[in-house]
């Protein structure tokens, strides 16, 4: 029972995390697959896409999803060469696979499908 509770809690942590430290590179290296949303508080499309990103995360709890404030975490921003917001990036085995700038849930889902 205790193991089950621990495992369930740990899975929930992996689902979606807003980074407060500029440590995305470490997290990408530690996980086989990673999905990232780069955004900013002033970005309207970022705010629109954030709930869609969280929903995708909740449907795929085996893969960590991270939200990066691109203005506050510049080193993390460099990993995907972000120049526009919102940007979504997927990493596999420590490497950037692809990234897109979009405000469409369908485009985000298509990007995510590249991880499988």
UniProtKB/TrEMBL annotation:
Q: Where are the transmembrane segments?
A: none
Q: Which InterPro entries match?
A: Thioredoxin-like_sf, Thioredoxin_domain, Thioredoxin_H-type-like
Matches recorded under SUPFAM superfamilies? Thioredoxin-like
Among the Pfam families in the record, one is Thioredoxin
The segment(s) forming the Thioredoxin domain are 1-116
Name by which UniProt lists this protein: Thiol reductase thioredoxin
């Amino acid at each position: 029972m205790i193991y089950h509770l621990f495992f369930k809690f740990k899975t929930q942590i992996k689902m979606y995390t807003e980074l407060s430290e500029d440590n995305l590179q470490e997290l990408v290296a530690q996980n086989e697959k990673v999905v990232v949303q780069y955004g900013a508080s002033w970005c309207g499309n970022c705010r629109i896409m954030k709930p869609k990103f969280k929903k995708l995360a909740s449907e795929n709890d085996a893969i960590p999803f991270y939200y990066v404030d691109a203005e506050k975490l510049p080193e993390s921003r460099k990993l995907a060469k972000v120049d526009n917001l919102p940007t979504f990036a997927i990493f596999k085995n420590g490497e950037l696979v692809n990234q897109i700038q979009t405000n469409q849930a369908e485009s985000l889902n298509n990007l995510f499908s590249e991880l499988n």
